[in-house]
Predict the 3D structure of the following.
Amino acid sequence: MPARNAEATRTRILDAALAEFADRGFAGGRVDRVARAAETNVRMIYAYFGGKDALFDAALTSAIERMAAAVPPRPADLAAWAGDLFDFHGSDATTLRIALWAQLERPEAAAEPLDDYLAKVSAVTGASPLDAVDVLTFVYSLAQAWYLTPIGLLLSADGRDPRDPARVAAHREALVATVHRLTGK
Amino acid sequence: MPARNAEATRTRILDAALAEFADRGFAGGRVDRVARAAETNVRMIYAYFGGKDALFDAALTSAIERMAAAVPPRPADLAAWAGDLFDFHGSDATTLRIALWAQLERPEAAAEPLDDYLAKVSAVTGASPLDAVDVLTFVYSLAQAWYLTPIGLLLSADGRDPRDPARVAAHREALVATVHRLTGK
DNA sequence: ACTCTATAAGTAAACGATTATTTACTTAGG
DNA sequence: CCTAAGTAAATAATCGTTTACTTATAGAGT
C-alpha cells in the first residue's frame, strides 16, 4: 500500500461526502468538512469529482447502488421486499436521507439512480387489482413510513417507545402484513 | 390602510418565508430573498421573528396549521381523509415540502406542529386489525407516496404521463381503495 | 384643533464569519 | 526526472446579523 493512492483517496472522499450530505443535505453540506473527514483537502475533491454538485450526485448514486445490492428487487414477493427495505433503512438512515434530500434539492439528479432499481420491481408485480406503478409507489412508501414519521410524534401519540426494538419489530410485522394484503395476498 | 402596518408586514414576511423555505429548505433558504419577496428588508425579519431559525419554525407552524384547517382530521373515515390529504398536497406542494425539510434539517421543530393534528386522527382509528399508530403512519405515508416519487421515475416506469390529471385521479382512486382495505373495509 | 413628542415602523449600510473554487507550490514514485 | 498525488493559502462572493439612522403615527397637553 503506497503512501499515495488515488483510488483509496477517492473512496475516502466519496464515503465522507455520503455521510456529510446524508446528514446535512446539499445546501447544508460543506466541502471542507468532507475533505477533513476524508483526511485530505478540498483540492482533491475538485480533482476527482469536479465540484460540489458532481460530488453530491456521485454520493447519491453510490448510496443507491449499495441499497440495490443489499436489498435486491423481489417483484415476486413485494411483502418480503418491503420487509428487507425496512430493515435496511433501520440499520442505516444514510440512503433514505440522501435520497430524500436529492428529491427536494436536486430533483433532476434524484430520478436516475433509483430508476433502474425500482423499474425491476415494477416489472412484474404479480396479480394485484391495482396498477403496477401505483403498487410500487405504495410499497416503497410504506417501507419508509416509520422512519419518515417525526420521532416526537411517535413518542407522544404511541403508548410505546418508538426506539424499542420490540416496537420496531411490531411495526415491521404490520408492514409486511399490509403489503401482503395490498398485493392481493 | 396606513403606510405603516406592522401586522401586514409580518404576514408578508411569513408568507414569503414559507415559499422560500418550502422551495429551498432551511440551509438553502436566504433571509434577504425573503425580505425582497416580502417587499421589506432583513431588519424587519429580525424585529418580528428574531432570526432565521425562528422564522423557519414560524413558517412551518403556519403551513401545518393551514393544512389542519383545510384537511380536518377524519378518524372515522381514514380513506376519505387520505383522499383529502392527497388533493391538498396535489394543489400545493408547499406544506409537504417544508414538513419534509423540517424532518431532515430540524427534527426537533418538526414534531410539535404535526403532533396535535395527527394525534386527533390516531385517537379513534375504528376497527382495524393493526395498531392505531401503525395505521396512522401508513395512511399518512400513502397519501404522500405519489408526490415523493421522483417524477423522472414515474415518467420512465409508468406507461402514462404522471402529470396527466386522469393519471393522478387514477392514483387517487387506488389510494382510497388501498386505505379502505387497510383499515378493514 | 393643534402642536409636540415618544415610540413604533422602516431603511441602508456595514460587519464578521463562511464558503466554493482556484492558483501556486511541494513531494513521492516509477 | 517527469508526472501524478497531495498540500497550503488566497480569492471572490455570499450570508446571517447588527448598528446607526430616518420617518410616520397616535396620543397627551395646551
About this structure: Chain B touches chain A through 54 residues (CB under 8 Å).
